[in-house]
Amino acid sequence: MRKSVAIITGANGGMGREITKKVLLAGYETVMACRNIEKSLPICQEIEKETNLKPTLLQLDLASFNSILAFVETIKQKYDRIDLLLNNAGVLSHYLEITEQGVENTIGVNYLGHYLLTRELFPLMGEGTRIVNMISLTYRYGKIDDHFFDVDKIKHFNRFTLYSNSKLAFLYFSLDIAGEWKEKGITVNCADPGIVSTNIIRMGNPVIDKLCDIFFRPLIKQPLEGAGTLLYLALSDKVKNSTGNYFRNKKRRKISKKLLLHPQRQLLKEITEEFIQQFTSSIE
Of 79, 111, 163, 172, which residue is the catalytic one? Predict the structure, then answer.
C-alpha cells in the first residue's frame, strides 16, 4: 500500500524538528528539505532515534532557484504524488544578503523560494493534497511596491520591515493559489505560530537576547507549541476541507477586507510572474 508523502521545508529548525516527528508518527513518508545537509544529518538521525521512523533528508536552498529546481526533479523521480507540503522555512536576516537571483535574502527565501517550489511541485498534487504555509502576524505591517525585488532601492536595511513584507507576499500567494487550485481538491491554508523560541527571533546581541528572554518569556512559545497550528491544519480531519484561510492558535482569523482588495496584491502577482519568467527564459 502506498504511503502518503510529506515535504517539510526548514525541517531541521526548532519547529521543523517537532513538525517532522509528528508527521512521521502520523504515518507519512517524510522528506526533510534542508539547506545544509551536514548540519541537518545529526538532527535527522536524532528524529529517527526518537520516533523509530526514518525521514528522507534532501538538500534544498530556497535562496537558489537552481537548488529548488534540482530538489523538485529529485522529488519527481522518487514520488508520483505529494500529499502534504509544509512550507515552514523562514529567515530574518541580520544584514543585507543577496540571493543568486539578486533579491534580498529574506524576500528570496520566505516568499520567492517557496513560490517557485510550490508551483513546481503542483503537477504532483491532487485531490486531498494539503499545503500549509507559515505566516506571521507581522504581515499586517508589510507593503508591496513596484521595486519589491530591487535591492538597489533598499536605502536603509530594516530586517523587520523586510520580514513583514515577505510574510505579506506569502499570505497573498497562499490566498491566490487556494483559489486557483480549489477545483482540483488541493487545500492551502496559513498558520501563524506566534512568537516562538527559535533562532529566527534572536537579535544577534547576547545582552539584548538575554533581556528579551527575561521580559518576553511569558509570551514566547516553545517550538512544539508554536508548531501546533500548522500541525492542526496539516493533520486534523476538522479542517480537511478548509482552504484560503489564516489560522492562529488553531482558530480561523479574519484578514481585513482592505488588505484583501488592495491593488498591491495584483501588483505582486504580476511582478512575481515576470521575475520567474525572466529566470526560466534564461535557462531554456
Answer: 163
